[in-house]
Design brief:
- It comes from Rhizophagus clarus.
- One of its GO terms (cellular component) is ubiquitin ligase complex.
- There is one protein chain.
- This protein has 421 residues and is α+β, with helices and mostly antiparallel strands.
- The protein has 13 helices and 13 strands.
- It has a 6-stranded antiparallel beta sheet with strand order 4-13-5-6-8-9, with helices on both faces.
- α4 packs across α5 and α5 packs antiparallel against α6.
- It is elongated.
Length: 421
Amino acid sequence: MSTQFFSKLSQNYIELLKDDEYYDTTIEVGEDPNVKIFHAHMNILYYRSPYLRRILASEKKNNGLIYIKLPNILPEIFQIILEYIYGGILSLDGHDAPDFLKILATADMLHLQELVNYLQKYLIENKSEWDDLQMKEIEVWEHVLKWGLAQNPTLISGPNTWSDDDFRTMENTLQHCLPLVRFFSLSSVEFSQKVHPYKKLLKHQFYEELLNSYLDPNREPTDNILLPRNITVDKIIDSRIVNLNIVSIISRWIDRTELNYKFSHLRELYFPYQFKLLLRGSRDGFTPKNFHELCDGKSDTITFIKIKDSEEIIGGYNPLKWESSATWGITNGSFIFSFKGKNNYKDATISNVKKLDHALWFNTIAGPYFGDDIIVYASEESIDYNEFYYQKCHYEKEIRDSGYRFSMEDYEVFQIIKRKV
């Protein structure tokens, strides 16, 4: 008969870790200003971590103590690792995605294979919904290829020399990775230079749809395409109406980077501009006078209008300066748009100006007035807007399918400013 008392053993070893009296190893962890000193025991470290075993074997004792420096590990992460080394305990409660990855990376560095295997399995089974990888999609693809080549050292990096068997080998290696790469997020240049040479790794039908998304302006995206990753970018816009996904789509439309606008919401988030808030109706007022005081003389502006009692958002881009004079603004660069909602990008509609000499209307009693299509004005310049209309007139496409009149819940006007990269 054999009985195991691991719980009490684990508890005793954790108590030993916390006891500062009988240690023989001092470990300095981290870099200034985030440095912490840990006390540990050589025999435990030696048998639990192959990485630390090599370090301990090469260090000489000084007054009976060994001193180790681990500058590439965060102290708070090393504390978690030490508790695992001593007591076989791992507590993941209260830790977010970056912490998980830091613990995994540290366990891998210290060659704690049991812990590495557990964390990898845990992440796959419990955290597969995470979607906050802060990396450009082209970099994800390049790392996938690099990993695939590392698994097949006989393959050289250039696909031009690969045989059909080589491609099949690589495809088999990457079979679980390829569906997770968001190829539709890539730019046409990235696709042409970085994906096209490896097209034999992709299923024929998938590759054809990907290719056509760049070439065919009438191609509709299917429903099973992964949306772009949620890249965190600070200080792009302060809006109560739109989010960064809509900002990215609008920025692409301004720069005309898309031939097929139906795929704009699937491309990698694109932020060449900062959106400077000029006016918010709920903050600054809803009169034409407010609008002209804050927006006249400002060029390159975007207007977002939130439709009342609806999720719908409409608006337009004006490359000219807003004015108060009763005159038409002439340009070929303006457009109007609509979104079904803040989180509904697939059905977005863009409509470029058709009658260039009637692209915009400037007037003291008008607010944002795009052609005779989106009309916002008041009977007098100092009273709140009381007339809101949409009709297809001087722009190419219909952007609304519900009614001529509408009510405005709020509106915002932003000036776009080129970001310094």
